[in-house]
Design a protein that fits this description.
Helix content is 15%, strand content 32%. It is α+β, with helices and mostly antiparallel strands. It has 2 domains: 176 residues, DNA ligase/mRNA capping enzyme (D-amino Acid Aminotransferase, Chain A, domain 1), CATH 3.30.470; 123 residues, OB fold (Dihydrolipoamide Acetyltransferase, E2P).
Length: 322
């Protein structure tokens, strides 16, 4: 097969519990940027999940993949910053991106093409076996993502005890299926999701520049729905960075389909006179305790801005039972 220019990545559905059974294997859910490595006769491209070419942002990762013994290959994985205890960290990933530095690790978990062969058509375990062979002697900065069978919930609980984000469970017998087809499911240790930044509020007291971010998501009809606010998890440096990104996007027009409530059961009043609306272009990753009946987010914490997902693709995730 000709080497594809870009392949829409296979996505995972959110579920409440990790599944168990001989048809499932389980992997750690990494906390970074989903990336594909496209290798063609010594030339490497690092592609985002929407097909953007970010090779220039991560030259060390591209140079590592150029060392692999393959004429052509298309590899799926996650590019991450890694803490000293081995846990992946989105904050470290973002720091490395901002600084343009190396020190990142690419966790490779799937193989779609190798030396002209359409590997994506094979069942998952055969694809992973081929990937493991290709990465027998991996270059620095590239790691093969191991998997485990057995009790998925036991695996998820162990991941949670180690401070990980969660696990991804995958059907062993399915080919690679671009899009959200249900053959991969994710179960998390924390509620964590992406939201569109629709504005910011004025700071109060000693806080600088930004009080809180106003968040939203798109419903199936394309309307931008208010989801609540986040004001914790932001250092002084982060507040300055956010303000610098938000200010050029300021607009007098509210981007939401309907205005946010001025009062919420689990939050203080929101005077709209102190809100600065922005064009809905930035995507923030947030952890949260749950949703109120309104429905608005509860006990939110800011994790970071995501550069790898267009705002128009942000939807509200709802966990189901596998």
């Amino acid at each position: 097969m000709p080497l594809p220019r870009w392949v829409e990545p296979q996505l995972s559905k959110l579920v409440e519990r990790a599944p168990t059974g001989p048809q499932w294997v389980h992997e750690i859910k990494f906390d970074g940027y989903r990336m594909a490595a496209r290798i063609e006769r010594g030339k490497v491209q690092i592609l985002t999940r929407s097909g953007l070419d970010w090779t220039a942002k991560y030259p060390a990762t591209a140079a590592a993949f150029a060392q692999l013994p393959a004429k052509t290959a298309y590899i799926d994985g996650e590019l991450c910053g890694v803490r000293a205890d081995g846990v992946t960290s989105f904050e470290l990933m973002q720091q490395a991106s901002d600084a343009g530095s190396g020190g990142l690790v690419y966790f490779a978990f799937d193989l779609l093409e190798l030396d002209g062969e359409n590997v994506a058509r094979l069942p998952l375990l055969e694809r992973k076996e081929r990937l493991a062979q290709l990465l027998q002697d991996p270059p620095a900065g590239v790691v093969y993502s191991e998997h485990e069978g057995g009790d998925g919930e036991a695996f998820r609980r162990a991941a949670c005890r180690h401070g990980l984000e969660g696990v991804v469970s995958k059907r062993t017998d399915r080919p690679y299926l671009p899009g959200d087809r249900g053959a991969w499911v994710k179960s998390k240790c924390l509620n964590r999701a992406e939201f569109v930044v629709v504005g910011w509020s004025d700071p109060e007291g000693s806080r600088h520049l930004v009080g809180s971010l106003l968040l939203g998501y798109y419903d199936p009809e394309g309307r931008l729905i208010y989801a609540g606010r986040v004001g914790t998890g932001m250092s002084v440096k982060t507040l300055a960075t956010l303000h610098a990104r938000l200010a050029p996007l300021a607009t007098a027009t509210m981007p939401l389909s309907s205005p946010p409530p001025r009062r919420s059961r689990f939050g203080g009043p929101l005077p709209l006179s102190k809100v600065h609306w922005v064009r809905p272009e930035l995507v923030a990753e947030i952890t949260y305790l749950g949703w109120t009946d309104e429905p608005l987010l509860r006990h939110t914490v800011f994790v970071g801005l995501r550069e790898d997902k267009p705002a128009r693709e942000v939807r509200r995730e709802a966990a189901t039972r596998p």
